[in-house]
Each structure stands twice: as structure tokens, then as C-alpha cells.
Amino acid sequence: MFDFAAQNDSSPVEFQSALALFQNDYAFLARILNLLLTQVDTDLPTIQRAVTLKDSQALAEVTHRLKGSLSAVCALPSFATCTALHQSARHGSVESYALELRSLEHELARLKPCVEAWLSERAKTNV
What we know:
The chain is an all-alpha fold. It has one domain (13-125): Four Helix Bundle (Hemerythrin (Met), subunit A) (Up-down Bundle). Helices cover 76% and strands 0% of the residues. It is built from five helices and no strands. The model is unreliable at 1-8 (pLDDT under 50).
């Protein structure tokens, strides 16, 4: 079981901060987190394709959208890596895309099981 109380600065999601933003509405946060997981499944392949094609405009658009969603749920490590990739895309810094994509993939891979565990715990406790 994931220990949500033992989160540190590198936790994929700051759940207590997210809950505060959502006025402690667990159900609403759960709906938003489910939408985020769907968005990640859609956006990550689009980001990977844009990096492969060195399509700065497409990359800037999709990373802008994703970083907003990550910020909304206090997924700060993923938000930070997505922001770096977004900034590189806006400046056409194609040489940094691959490294920043790997960082984003790493953070999103940490994010998904963390969010799924939180959602599972909420479902069990009906909170």
C-alpha cells in the first residue's frame, strides 16, 4: 500500500495540496485524477511523435495543455519536466527534446501508479 502520509518533496503528487485546492472534495479530485490519467495516455504518444518529428509547434501545444493539468492536481515533478519540455519547444531547442522527453516519461511512469493507488484507497474507504 502506498503511504500517502509519508510523501516527501519528490512525491509524484502532493495530494494534501491538491485536496486543499479542491476544498477537500475527494470525489471531485478523484474525477479530475481519472481524467488526468486518460489525458496522459493520449498526450504522451503525441508528445513522443512530436519529439521524433522535431515538430516544435505541436510539441508546444500538447505540453502546454498537459502541464496545466499536472499543475491543477499538484503533480509537481511531472509539471516541472513538462514545463522544461514546453519551454524548449517554444524556443525550438530541438537538441534538448530527447533528454527532456525521457525525464517526462520517467515522471509520468512514477505518477500513474501513485494516482492509481490513491484512487484505489479512496474507492475502498468510500471517501
